[in-house]
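Q: Here's a chain of 557 amino acids. Please give me its 3D structure as C-alpha cells.
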Amino acid sequence: MSLFPSDIEIAQKSKILSIKAVAHAINIQEEDLELYGKYKAKLPLQLLQKEAKGKLILVSAMSPTKYGEGKTTMTIGLTDGLNKIGKKAIAVLREPSLGPVFGLKGGAAGGGYAQVLPMEDINLHFTGDFSAIEKANNLLSAIIDNYLHHGSSDLHLDPKSIVWKRVMDMNDRALRQIIIGVGAKGNGVMREENFNITPASEIMAIVCLAEGIADLKRRLGNIYVGKTVEGQPVFARDLNVVGAMAALLKEAIKPNLVQTIEGNPAILHGGPFASIAQGTNSVIATKMGLSLGEYVVTEAGFGADLGAEKFFHIKCEQSGLRPDAVVLVATLKAIKHHAGLSAEECKEPNINAIKDGFCNLEKHIENIQKFGIQPVVCINAFPTDTQEEYHLLIALCAQKGANAVVSTAFADGGKGAEKLAQAIVDQVTTTSANYQPLYVKTATIASKIETIATEIYGASSVEYSAKAKKQLKTIIELGFEHFSICMVKTPASFSDDEKKIGSPAGFTVTVREFEFASGAGFVIPLLGEVMRMPGLPKIPNATRIDIDDDGVISGLS
C-alpha cells in the first residue's frame, strides 16, 4: 500500500498558473496587478466595489481536537467544488504565521489536494505583510521609549503604566518577559517589557478591520499606550507617529492574490490569532472577494463558539458584512473525542460514541441557528471512517434541521467537495439567511459577556475577579463600553475548563482579567491564561525544513 504524498510533495508536483491568468478569470486587468513574481500579486484597493453582490460563506467547526478538523482544507476544497459546478468562487483566507510553521502546528495553506499555491512562499515570508505589521508595531514601541528617554514638556509618560508590547513573528519563549534599557544611561529607561507574536498584535487586528487608509490611520491613532504621571490616558496619536506607522503599512493593507491547486483564485490577507483577536482575514479582502466573485468562502479560527462568534460580533458588526451561509466542519474522530474516547479508540468504528459525542456538534448547530442561519455540516472524511457512522451522523444532524454532507476534498480536491458545494448553492438560492447578532453594541460590557457565556457557551453565570472588576471600571471610564467583545478562553471546551468536553451545562465562567484593543474596537475578557508568545516544542518543525542547491524546499507541512 503506497503512502499518501505529503502536502509539500503534492504542492510541488501541481501545475501552477501565471497569476495573470488567475486574475483574468475574475476580470482583473494586468495593469491592476502589483506583481510579486509570477505567482503572487497585490490587489489595489480601487478594485473594491461599494455594492458587492457575491454570497458570503463562513466555514467554522465543532470544538477543535488535537487531530485537526480541517477548516482551511475544507474552505479551499469547497471553493474548488463550487467552481467545479460552474460557480465563480473565491477563497479568502488568513496568511500563516512563522511561529506555527517552525513550531508544532505547521503551515496554514490547506492540505492534501485542497491547498493554495505557491505553498512554500505562502508559509514563509509571502509578500512581507507580517514584517510590515511587525515594523509598524515596533516603531510605536521605539517612539514610546524615546519619549521616556528624552522626556517631554507636554507628555509625561508613566513607564509603569505602559501596556504596549513589542512583537516578532517567531515562537521565542525567552522574550515573554524581559528587561530593556539595561546598562549605560544612553541605553534608555530601564523597564520591564514583553514580546508578543505578530499575529497577537493589535496592529494585525487593526489591519484586518480597517476599510481603507483613512480608517487605518484613525484606528492606529486610537491605540492606547498607557497613562501620564498625572493619570491621563495616552494614545498613539498623542505621540505623533500615526502617519509613519501607516506609511509602513501602505502595501500590507492590500490583499494578496494566489491560487488553489486547481487554479481557482484565492485571496490571502492578514492573520490575527483567534485566541486573542478576531481570528479571521481582513474586511478589505472579504469585500474585495465579494466584489470579484459570485461566492466568497472564508473561515474563522477555532470552533464556532470562538471563531464564528467573533466573526459575527466583531468583523460583521464593525464592517456591515452579512453571511449568507455557514459550514460547520466535523470529523468522526472529533465526535468520538467528545464522547470521551482515547486517541486509539477514536480510530475504531463506534456507533455509540457517535451518539454520545454528537452533543458537541449539536450545540454548535444550535448556536449558529441562534444567529438566524441554518448551518450545513461538512463531514471531513478520514480513511478509518465507516459508512454506518456517516449515516448515523447525517441522521442526527437532520434531526436538528441541518443538512450534513461528506467531503473528500483532502484526497480528491474539488471533485470531493462537489456535493457540499451543491448543498451550499441549494441553501443560498432557496433560503434567505436572516442573520442577526445576539447583542447590540449599546449594551453594557457585562451584558454582552453574559450573552456570549450563557447563549453560546451554555454557562449558567459569570463571575469576575476583584482585578477584573477594577479593570472593567477603568474601561468604562475610558468610554469603551460600546466596543465589541473578544473572548479569550480554551478552544477545547465550551466552558473555561478544557477538560469539560462534549456539551457541558450549568457551569460558571470566571473573567480573570480584562484587556482591550482600542484601535481595533474590542474589549478582551480573559477567562484563562493566554499565550501571546508561544514557545517551540522539544523537536520543532524548523529542524525538518531544508533547501537544496536548486532552491527546492523540503519539510514544510
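Q: Can you summarize the key feature?
A: The chain has three domains: 7-128+252-430, 129-248, 445-526.
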